[in-house]
Structure to design on (239 residues):
């Protein structure tokens, strides 16, 4: 073998030996592999998940409620709790049945059509306008004095059901109406009676109907005098 060739073989072998020593002969490299080069406490501690945005705010709010003795389940449910406490709506009261103390006395006048005539809704509304009657409580008409909530007298339907339907005036028909006065009234009993009688007479002219007493008999001067005396007696008893 030529000398030059031997030299190259020795060089190559030497390089291989040095490389093997460098790679496999260093004990520190065996104990510390490349994957463990990162040092420090953060490299050995487990990273906890964190909350961000609205999730963090919700958890903080829940903890605050627990600290105050509240319940986290109340979040977003306050309105439901309030609504649950509201009582269920009861049945609608029927018109014509007012609640209150029993009156001392009731005086009535009937206005009834004859000869198979009927009173239409338009005719009745016109008569109430001309006599100062107002549609109101219990779906009937009232004469209410200024500054008072209680009517002097009222007017109801003489036919069933006794009251009027507000939205049915175009088709409404009846054979008559009834004026009634309940005592005590917001004014003197005799004044209340005189006011109702005057209204009854005026409406009988407008509607072309008969004015009758409480027993549906023709209203006479004699009956008028009797009622006036009754009103005077009532006023004396209450004075």
């Amino acid at each position: 073998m030529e000398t030059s060739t031997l030299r190259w073989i020795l060089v190559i072998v030497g390089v291989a030996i040095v490389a093997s020593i460098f790679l496999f002969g260093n004990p520190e490299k065996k104990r510390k592999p490349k994957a463990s080069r990162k040092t420090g406490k953060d490299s050995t501690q487990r990273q906890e998940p964190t909350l961000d945005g609205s999730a963090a705010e919700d958890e903080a709010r829940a903890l605050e409620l627990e600290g105050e003795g509240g319940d986290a389940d109340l979040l977003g449910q306050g309105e439901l709790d309030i609504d649950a406490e509201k009582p269920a709506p009861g049945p609608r009261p029927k018109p014509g049945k007012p609640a209150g103390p029993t009156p001392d006395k009731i005086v009535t006048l009937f206005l009834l059509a004859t000869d198979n005539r009927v009173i239409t809704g338009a005719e009745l509304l016109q008569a109430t306008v001309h006599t100062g009657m107002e549609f109101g409580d219990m779906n009937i008409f009232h004469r209410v004095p200024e500054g008072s909530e209680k009517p002097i007298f009222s007017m109801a339907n003489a036919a069933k059901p006794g009251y009027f339907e507000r939205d049915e005036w175009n088709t409404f028909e009846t054979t008559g109406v009834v004026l009634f006065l309940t005592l005590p009234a917001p004014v003197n009993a005799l004044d209340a009676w005189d006011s109702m009688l005057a209204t009854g007479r005026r409406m009988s002219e407008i509607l072309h109907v008969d004015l009758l007493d409480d027993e549906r008999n023709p209203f006479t001067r004699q009956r008028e005098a009797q009622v006036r005396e009754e009103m005077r007696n009532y006023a004396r008893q209450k004075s």
In short: The domain at 105-238 is CATH 3.30.1400.10 (Cell Division Protein Zipa; Chain: A,). The chain is about 40% helix and 15% strand. The helical segments are 3-24, 27-31, 54-67, 78-84, 121-131, 189-207, 221-238. The mean pLDDT is 75.
